[in-house]
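In the design runs reported in the main text, the only information available to the sequence generator was the tokenized backbone. The following block is the verbatim input for one such run; it is reproduced so that readers can re-run the procedure and compare outputs position by position.
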């Protein structure tokens, strides 16, 4: 593939985003990657080399995103943008009965409104305009297993990913007008530094609720879950396959033990899945 193929990936400072950028560069893509800090821009640039260009913006900052669009447009010099990977995101945790609404709102601000802001800004470069000439690009929205299955204490995150999936499906159908495709990637546990930060989750505000005793178990489970995850490079390879046309589905689940952890729960009665998850978390009716 010629070096002229270019892609924007949000949230490349660590984890899945950085792995996606690295694998796409290995496939001869020019990667523009968003980071929030100058130091992250320098670190990623040093690792990834001349095929990487940092974009300094937060997905909640419309003005900074617009500057990123201008930077990419100037670099492309009339050539089309081949892809946009909406990867940046956060995970807010807590029991739905007690979690402050402001935290849920921030979850949506980053995980739902963020990808929508970025997509709206970059869509003209991807081909969503009447005067576009060339091959339209693709949008890949990074969802999660939580985009279809919600776990206890992760309702804000699962809500945001469910919403992102709805947005993705609607946009894919709307953007047929321009030939711009939208694909969902829903990873399970992936070995990234985010899982190492599980112990940093502050559950003190829930310590005196009936859920307090279970939240430490959730943190331990998250660390164990991450340690058993797939390499982040596997997600990067899948993204490359999608952008280059080798993978043609509209949604991909990528996780270890996919049959038991993804396929079977989709087939079982919801009450049965409820009971299995509650048992795993130790949740049972208070006597």
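Verbatim output:
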């Amino acid at each position: 593939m010629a070096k002229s193929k270019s892609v924007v990936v949000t949230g490349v400072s660590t984890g899945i985003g950085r792995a996606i950028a690295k694998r796409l560069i290995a496939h001869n893509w020019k990667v523009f990657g968003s980071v929030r800090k100058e130091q992250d821009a320098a670190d990623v640039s040093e690792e990834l080399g001349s095929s990487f260009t940092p974009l300094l913006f937060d997905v909640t900052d419309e003005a900074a995103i617009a500057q990123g669009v201008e930077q990419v447009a100037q670099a492309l010099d009339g050539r089309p943008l081949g892809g946009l990977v909406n990867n940046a995101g956060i995970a807010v945790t807590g029991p739905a009965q007690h979690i402050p609404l402001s935290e849920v709102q921030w979850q949506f601000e980053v995980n739902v409104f963020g990808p929508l802001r970025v997509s709206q800004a970059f869509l003209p470069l991807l081909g969503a305009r009447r005067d576009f000439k060339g091959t339209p690009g693709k949008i890949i929205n990074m969802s999660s297993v939580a985009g279809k299955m919600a776990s206890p204490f992760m309702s804000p995150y699962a809500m945001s990913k469910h919403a992102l999936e709805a947005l993705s499906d609607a946009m894919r159908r709307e953007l047929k007008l321009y030939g711009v495709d939208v694909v969902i990637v829903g990873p399970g546990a992936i070995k990234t530094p985010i899982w190492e930060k599980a112990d940093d989750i502050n559950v003190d505000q829930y310590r005196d609720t009936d859920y307090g005793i279970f939240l430490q178990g959730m943190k331990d489970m998250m660390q164990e879950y991450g340690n058993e995850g797939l390499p982040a490079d596997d997600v990067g390879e899948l993204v490359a396959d999608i952008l280059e046309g080798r993978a043609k589905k509209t949604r991909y689940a990528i996780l270890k033990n996919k049959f038991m952890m993804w396929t079977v729960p989709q087939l079982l009665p919801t009450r049965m899945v409820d009971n299995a998850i509650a048992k795993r978390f130790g949740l049972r009716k208070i006597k």
